[in-house]
Each structure stands twice: as structure tokens, then as C-alpha cells.
Structure prediction request, 364 residues.
Amino acid sequence: MENLGMSASAFSGRRVLVTGHTGFKGAWLAAWLAEAGAEVAGYALAPETKPNLWTLLDQRKIRSVTGDLNDRAALDRTIAETDPEFVFHLAAQSLVRRSYRTPVETFATNVLGTVQLLDALRAAPSLRAVVVATSDKAYENVEQIWGYRETDPMGGHDPYSASKGATEIAVAAMRRSYYSPDAADPHPARIASARAGNVIGGGDWAEDRLVPDIVRGCLSDEGRVILRYPGAIRPWQHVLEPLRGYMMLAQKLEQDAAFAAGWNFGPERDDERPVLEVAQAVIKALGQGRIDIDTPADTPHEAKMLRLDVSQARALLGWRPVLSFDDTVRLTADWYAGWARGTPATELCHAQIAEFETLSMRQV
Prediction:
């Protein structure tokens, strides 16, 4: 079975472009790849929050370009200058509640931005593989008790979810039209999409996201954590879990066109927990904070249950979750606790990557 050490070290000396590197997941991935010896370039908007993980990290090994996906001239210039062999597309408007306020921005960024990127990459001569990160919310969610499989229909109730479902459809169309042997003048690169569940970990300060809200509440003067949907069940996983899957998938894409498809990355069924249990676990790990339940009558719709079936990734990629729910919460809380004590973010990230790599290598 593959292990994480092999997955990360395989990018040593390779040219990698990460879109959205100033975001939570993108910053972790860029730092991980750079530490593994890759030549990493990032293309993204400036970070929105203060603090944010990207500006706290040691950026000396990463070439950072500030730009919009829909600024085609800037995007084309970046691709020409970096000539990537691998692209991890993580840039997105990633917040459900914001999507209700800004639906046009959400669709423009998530759908059109992805199409702009895949079209621009047709001019990248060295490109071998592209992994497009979408979301578990890309599926048409009917609140079923079993996990969604890669063959289930795309959809979405809210603008964010619908934009991710639409992105999946767009990726499939671009793949068949321009990156398939059946296309006219096809590009040899292979493209896959990756659908991950609710990701948590240190360094996330986004608005209206559970763990950042918990941490902000715990560290505030009042120590008050407000929950909107305490009973909602989510497939919580540490940020390093899907990133490991993205790297393994990119490796496989370079080797075999059969992997150019959609893939699910999520936790074990036993590690799916309600929001209340996650909040209680983080508060316990941090050693402070109290919970208040407040569900306004006019709050926007949010799914109550959403599960992914990861059988395909297990069987064909050799990927499976490394961390238990308890370890996921422990690493997350430890990161924030360390940061609050003044430990540099780069040191915290490197230590947790090293621990995660060690645990992954013990998988049988």
C-alpha cells in the first residue's frame, strides 16, 4: 500500500502550481509540498482574514502570485512563467452562508474560474496532472443515511453547493473536450476532481466555520461558543487527510489515465459526529469555553446529514484515513493552543506533518 512519505517525496524537484495557496487548505498544501522539495508556485487572491495561516508561514520556498482566476492575462502569464507539471486547484469561494449573500461571485469564482484555469492550462507544455478540489456538497443531498458514491448525481440547495456541483460538471466536460484521447488535438495531461468532507485543522480563521468560531469563542473574554445546528452530522476530517489523497491522486494520474475521474475523500463512518460533539471535544482539548445554542428562525438552509462513500479511494488509490476523530480534534486544538502560546505557525505545521507522515507509514 502507498504511504504518505512516498506521496510527498515524489514531488521533490517537480514544478507544482497551487491555486488558492493563501487559503486554509492551500497554505497547508503549499507548505507541505515545499517541505518535500517541490518547486512550488501559488496563485490566489490576498488573504481575507487577520490572522491567516499563509502570512504566518515561512514563505521563502514558495513563489506567490496575487491574482484572480478570472483575470485571464495574469493567469496565462503565471502559467507561462511557472510551466507546472502538476496543478492542485483549491482556489474557491468556500463558504455556504456567504454564498447566499454573494451568489454571482460564488458561481463566477467556483465555476467560471475553474473553466478559465483548465482552458489556460491547455497552453502548459509540461503539464502532467491536475487535481480540482470541489466539495462533498457537490452531490444532490437528499439527507440519505448511506454515503454518496462518485456515480451519484451532482446538485446543491444553496449557491455554494450548486456551484460545486456545476464545477464537477464543467470539469468533466473540459476533460472530455480537451484532455481526452478522443478530443481533437488533446492535451496529454489528465484531470481528476476530489470531493472532501468538512475539513478542520490548525490555522483556519474563516468566517462562519465551526472550528474557527469555536476557537474565537473560547479565546474571547466571554469564552462563549455559539452553535447554530448542534445536531447536524458532518464527515469531519483533519486537513492533512484529503491533501494526502490529492497528492496520491496526482501521482496516479501521471501514471494512468484511468484515474481521470471524480474521487471522494472522507473519514471512517465511526468518526462522523454531530456539531455539538465536535465543539465539546475542541473545548475540552483547549481547556476553556462554554457552549450556547442559538438557531435563529430565519437562518439559511444547511444540510443536516451528509456522508461520503470512500470505497473507490480505498480500493483503487490505496488511500484511507490515518487519524481517528480524537486524534483529529487533538491535533487541531494543539495547533491553536501552540499558536496562542507564541509558537511559530511553520513550526506547528511541520511538526504535525511529521507526525501525520509517521502515522501514515504505519498503515497496513
User: Anything to note?
Assistant: DSSP finds 13 helices and 13 strands in the chain. The CA atoms of residues 335 and 351 lie 10 Å apart.
